Amino acid sequence: MSKAFLEESALQELTNLLDEAHPQVVLAGFQRVDDDDAAVFLLMLKTASAPLAVHAGKIFAQLPFEKQLSIAEKVTTTEIVESERAQQIWKEQVVKIKEALDQTTFLGEGAANLAKLLSHVDIAKQDQLLEVLAKKQPEVAESVSEQLLTFDELGNLGNEAIKTILQVLEKPTLALALYNAPQAIQDRFLENMSAAQAEAVEAETAQLTFEQTQLVETARQSVVSLVRNFAAKGLLKLQ
């Protein structure tokens, strides 16, 4: 497919638009596109430049499944297109993206927004709300819970809070959670152990197999969940 009509300035303009716009805003405009035109436009993005090819993949990945399926079928049968039609489709889609940017205000990702609001609420009430939300939207509730307190934020815990957690946290779980963790977090936990305990955890971390290291995130989430549960029961304080 010839893209002679796509000057470098036009490619850069669209690249800048897509870089600056949140994917949900772009998607708002793109969902109004005819599937035939959408297939052509995505294919043009794919061949125009490496950055635009990445954006093409991101746009396609966010489309509703039925639209993805329809466009996928069009893509498999679209190998050539008249230059005049390609140019028209390109211009029309760029205009729609610009219109979406002008007409849409992005308020932020929903789960992240809720997590920020809940960060100002007592942790017991946080859990109560999330428990109810989980019955309606389990994936959203899980995402919010993960963002309320991250593993990296455990470095902000006070010494007493960390010592409380260490009393019940199993050594294999801690060793796995600390694998390749930021040094500041490793230090916060290790400095609150006896020399013998710290040496044992470090030794176990060093001996982890590749298969075991694939469970690092699960172990870290277990530690975070334990901290949240203890905080909700008043057994430790989050700073």
How would you describe this protein?
The termini are far apart. The model has no long low-confidence stretch (mean pLDDT 87). The protein folds into two domains: 8-103, Annexin V, domain 1; 150-239, Flagellar motor switch protein FliG, alpha-alpha superhelical domain (Annexin V, domain 1). The chain is an all-alpha fold and 239 residues long. It is built from 15 helices and no strands.
Concise synopsis of the structure shown:
This protein is 72% helix and 0% strand.
Which architecture name of the largest domain does CATH use? Answer: Orthogonal Bundle
Question: What is the terminal-to-terminal distance?
Answer: 58 Å
Number of domains: 2
Task: Please identify the structural class as seen in this structure.
Answer: mainly alpha
Strand content: under 5%
Question: What is the CATH class name of the largest domain?
Answer: Mainly Alpha
Taking all Cα atoms into account, the compactness measure Rg is 25 Å
CATH domain topology of the largest domain: Annexin V, domain 1
Helix content: over 70%
Outline: elongated
Low-confidence stretches: none
- Major sheet description: none
Q: Enumerate how many helices there are, as a single number.
A: 15
> Helix and strand succession?
HHHHHHHHHHHHHHH
* Annotation, overall tally of beta strands: 0
- pLDDT averaged over residues: 87
